[in-house]
Design brief:
It is a single chain. The protein is an alpha/beta fold. It has helices spanning 3-6, 51-58, 76-81, 100-110, 117-124, 139-151, 169-183, 196-202, 220-226, 241-244, 267-277, 290-299; strands at 13-22, 25-35, 40-44, 66-71, 85-88, 157-161, 188-192, 205-210, 213-218, 230-235, 250-256, 259-264, 282-288. The protein has 12 helices and 13 strands. The strands form 3 sheets. Strands 5-6-7-3-8-9 form a 6-stranded mixed beta sheet, with helices on both faces. Strands 11-12-10-13 form a 4-stranded antiparallel beta sheet. Strands 2-1-4 form a 3-stranded antiparallel beta sheet, with helices on one face. A hairpin with a 2-residue loop joins strand 11 (250-256) and strand 12 (259-264). Helix 4 packs parallel to helix 6 (139-151), helix 5 packs across helix 6 and helix 9 crosses helix 12. The longest helix has 15 residues, at 169-183. It is elongated, with a radius of gyration of 23 Å. The two termini are 26 Å apart. Mean pLDDT is 89; it is low at 1-8. It binds adenosine-5'-triphosphate (ATP). Residues 22, 25, 27, 45, 47-53 line the site of adenosine-5'-triphosphate.
C-alpha cells in the first residue's frame, strides 16, 4: 500500500497498522490511531504496553517495522523539522553545565516561528530559575525545563511521555494549568501517563494500550462504562464485611468502620437483598466502577485481546 493511501487528511496524528518489533518482542503490534487537531488524548497502559515505543516511532526517533505514520499529513521528520511538533520525553538529554535560559534559547533559536526563550520559560513556569545550571535542578524542575523546550517552537502538536514524573503536587498543578492554556488555543496534545486521574481530569479521549495493541479508545466516560459492574457505597452498622460478601451479586467488599464499598456484578439485585437483609443500611450511593476498574479489567492478564 502506498503511504498516500493511508494518510488521513487533516489529522494531527495518523498511525496506520503500526508495528514495531525488537527481535522477538512485539512492542507495538498493529496500532491504528487517528487524532484530530484540537484533541487532548491520554495514552494509558501497563508497563511494557508499548506507549513509549509508539511515541518514539511517532516522533521519527525510531523506524517502524511496518505501517505508516503521518503528522499533519507529513512524515514525522518533516513535521518535527518544520517546528510543528514539540516533545517531552522521559530521558531527553539536557546539558548539565548550561543554564535554563541557554537551554531553552537553543531550542527557540532553531525554528522560524518559535516563541522567545523568555516566553517559553514563562509559559512553562521556569523563569524564576532561568539563570540556574541544569545540573543544580531537582528532577521536577528539569521536567519543567523539558516542557519549556517542547513549547519553544510554538508547536501545533505536543507529545508528552509521562510529563509529570518527579514533579511535586504544586509542580503538577502548574504543569497542567500550562498544558490547558496551550490546548485551549485549539492545539493537539498526546500524553502518556500512569496517573489515571490525569487522564480523567485533562484528556478528551483515552487510548488504552495492552501488549502493543489498542485495547480501548474513547472518552473517559465511555471507557469507564465498559468496566462491568458498579460500586454501592453505604453505611451498614453492625454487619461484618464477611457477611456482606454473601449478598448475591457482590464480588468484593472494602470496609472502614460502618462505611462499606461493595463492588457488584448486579448492583440492582445486590441493593434489593442488602436492604431486605439489613434495613438499617443508610447513606446509599451507586456509581459506575470508573476508569480504574476499566483499566484493570481491560489490561489484566486474562483480558480478551
Ligand atoms: N530498544 C528496545 N529493545 C528491546 N526491547 C525494547 C526496546 N524498547 C522497548 N522494548 C520492549 O518493548 C515493550 C514495550 O516497551 P515500551 O517502553 O514501549 O512500553 P511502555 O508502555 O512505555 O512501558 P512503561 O510504562 O514501563 O514506560 C517492552 O516489552 C520493552 O521491554
Amino acid at each position: 500500500m502506498q503511504q498516500t493511501d493511508t494518510v488521513v487528511r487533516g489529522a494531527a496524528v495518523s498511525l496506520q497498522g503500526l508495528v514495531k518489533h525488537y527481535g522477538g518482542v512485539r512492542a507495538v503490534d498493529g496500532v491504528d490511531l487517528t487524532i484530530a487537531p484540537g484533541e487532548v488524548v491520554a495514552l494509558l497502559g501497563p508497563n511494557g504496553a508499548g506507549k513509549s515505543t509508539t511515541i518514539d516511532v511517532l516522533l521519527g526517533l525510531s523506524t517502524p517495522t511496518s505501517g505508516a505514520v503521518t503528522l499533519f499529513g507529513r512524515s514525522p521528520r518533516e513535521a518535527v523539522s518544520a517546528g510543528l511538533v514539540g516533545a517531552m520525553l522521559q530521558s531527553g538529554g539536557l546539558l548539565e553545565d548550561a543554564t535554563v535560559a541557554e537551554t531553552v534559547g537553543l531550542f527557540s533559536a532553531v525554528y522560524p516561528k518559535s516563541l522567545s526563550a523568555a516566553e517559553a520559560m514563562r509559559r512553562a513556569g521556569v523563569a524564576e530559575f532561568a539563570k540556574r545550571r541544569i545540573g543544580s535542578l531537582s528532577g521536577g524542575q528539569r521536567q519543567r525545563v523539558r516542557f519549556a523546550t517542547a513549547l519553544a517552537s510554538d508547536p501545533d502538536l505536543l507529545v508528552l511521555d509521562e510529563p509529570t514524573v518527579a514533579m511535586d503536587v504544586e509542580g503538577r498543578r502548574e504543569f497542567w494549568a500550562a498544558m490547558r492554556a496551550y490546548a485551549s488555543t485549539g492545539r493537539t496534545v498526546l500524553f502518556a501517563t500512569h496517573y489515571l486521574a490525569e487522564a480523567e481530569d485533562y484528556a478528551d479521549r483515552v487510548v488504552l494500550l495492552r501488549s502493543g495493541r489498542v485495547a480501548a479508545d474513547g472518552s473517559v466516560a465511555e471507557i469507564g462504562a465498559r468496566a462491568a459492574g458498579r460500586v454501592i457505597s453505604a453505611r451498614v452498622p453492625g454487619v461484618s464485611a464477611a457477611e456482606l460478601s454473601t449478598v448475591a451479586g457482590v464480588v468484593d467488599v472494602q470496609s472502614r468502620g460502618d462505611a462499606v464499598e461493595l463492588s457488584c456484578v448486579d448492583s440492582d439485585g445486590a441493593l434489593r437483598e442488602l436492604l431486605a437483609r439489613y434495613p438499617q443500611a443508610m447513606d446509599i450511593e451507586v456509581r459506575g466502577a470508573g476508569l480504574e476498574a476499566a483499566f484493570l479489567a481491560l489490561t489484566s492478564e486474562g483480558a480478551a485481546r
